[in-house]
Each structure stands twice: as C-alpha cells, then as structure tokens.
Amino acid sequence: MGDKGGQQSIRVEFVGDEHQPVVIVEDFAAHPEQLIAEAETLNFEVMGEYYPGVRARVPQTYLDALAPLVARVLREFFGHRGPLDSRALYSLVTTPSGQLTLPQRIPHVDGLQEGSFAILHYLSRGDYGGTAFYRHRSTGFETIDAARHPRYMDTLYADFAAHGEPTSGYIQGDTEIFEQIARYDAVFNRALIYRSSLLHCGEVPNGAGFPADVHCGRLTIASFLTAR
C-alpha cells in the first residue's frame, strides 16, 4: 500500500509511564499526491474552537481504502476488534502563534470514550514540526478518559492559578504543567495511530508563517474512530 517507489513499514512504540502504544506507519497511503490534489478542490473552514486552523471533510473513500490496514493495526497493537464509526478531516494550520487561544496552547485529547482511536497522517513536505505526547505533572496522567476527566480539569485550573496560564505560542517541550514523553517528526506520508485519550499536541514552530495552501502549508489528515 506504499506510495510508488516507497515501502510501507509499521512499528510500535510504548510511550510514557502508562506504556501506551503509538503506531508509526511509513508510506501510509498509496497515492498521497492525489490526496493533496483532492484537498485543493475543497473549501476549508474553521470547524470548532480547538484546531488552530481550517479543515475540510475527507471523502469516505479515503477511510475505506485504508480500512484493512487500520483494522490490522488496531487488532494487533490495541486488541480491538469490531466495527467503528469514522470520520476524517483535512487539517491546515493557519493560526499564528501569537493568536492562539488557551486550549490551543496546551496538550489535548481527541476523545474520552473507551474504544476511540485517532490517526494523524502527515501530507506536508515543509518543516512545520511534528507531534508530541505529554504527561500532566500534577496528576501524572498521560491519558484522560471519562473517569479521569473531572479530576484532570480541576487540577489543571489549579495549575493555572499556581503557575499562570501558558504564554502565547505553540507548546515546545517541557513546561511547569506538562512533561513531554515522546515526539515524532512530520515525515511526508507517515501516520501515527494512537488512543484518542492520549495527551498530545502539534509541535508547531513558533514564529513561522503558515500558508493557507495545501501544497506548501502544514497539511494533515486527522481521522477519528469510535467503537459502535
């Protein structure tokens, strides 16, 4: 399933004290250039308040083509079997570091529900940074599920009261509130697959310009999978 001239490889790393699996797939999609060309035809817009840029829906054919590979990864590395609801979004970072809201300046999770997974597929060749995973120092949490969420939020606001809110800019490495436990470069046509509850954030360079252009901007596809 690798791109022409490439060779797909799959490896897993277990990150942090909770030893959560992060699966790294090289040459994830068969024709990544076609995905970029398709993105060029779409209307990107702001979706929600958390992503620092604009997004567009990816046709279901993208997920359908990758379904056998994804099912294998989820079975072998996460022990998951069964049907999933899924959606995928082209995502293009466009927000300057000085204009980020508080939620955009700290690590986040993609979902609290058990049996939820995320796939981050890099489609940029520019040097726009990768993705990092974090531990919340006060609680020691590296994953946030529904049971942990109330305590996490209460403690996080206490952290802001004690240390102040994080300064403007994309998070880079360790802070007083969060410790980085792993990071991965944004290699073209690489995908990361991980549980949606894992704390993470884009490691986006501060001070960089982010062109709203699918050919030279920080383009990814973010997919969200939830057990039925």
Summarize, please:
The protein is an alpha+beta fold.
Which helices and strands occur, and which strands form pairs?
Elements: E1 9-15, E2 20-26, H1 32-40, E3 53-57, H2 60-78, E4 84-93, E5 116-122, E6 131-136, H3 149-163, E7 178-184, E8 191-195, E9 200-202, E10 219-227
Antiparallel strand pairs: 1-2, 2-8, 3-4, 4-10, 5-8, 5-10, 6-7, 6-9
Task: Describe what you observe in this structure.
The chain is of the alpha+beta class and 228 residues long. It is 19% helix and 29% strand. It contains three helices and ten strands. The strands form two sheets. A seven-stranded antiparallel sheet has the order 1-2-8-5-10-4-3, with helices on one face. A hairpin with a 4-residue loop joins strand 1 and strand 2. The protein is globular, with a radius of gyration of 17 Å. The two termini are 27 Å apart.
SS strand fraction: 25-35%
Oligomer: single chain
- Most strands sheet: 7 strands, antiparallel
What portion of residues is helical? 10-25%
Succession of helices and strands: EEHEHEEEHEEEE
Shape: globular
Structural class by sheet pairing and helices: alpha+beta
Strand order of the largest sheet: 1-2-8-5-10-4-3
The chain-level mean pLDDT equals 95
Cα distance spanning the termini: 27 Å
Number of strands: 10
Radius of gyration: 17 Å
> What is the number of helical segments per DSSP (H or I, 4+ residues)?
3
Give the low-confidence spans. Answer: 1-5
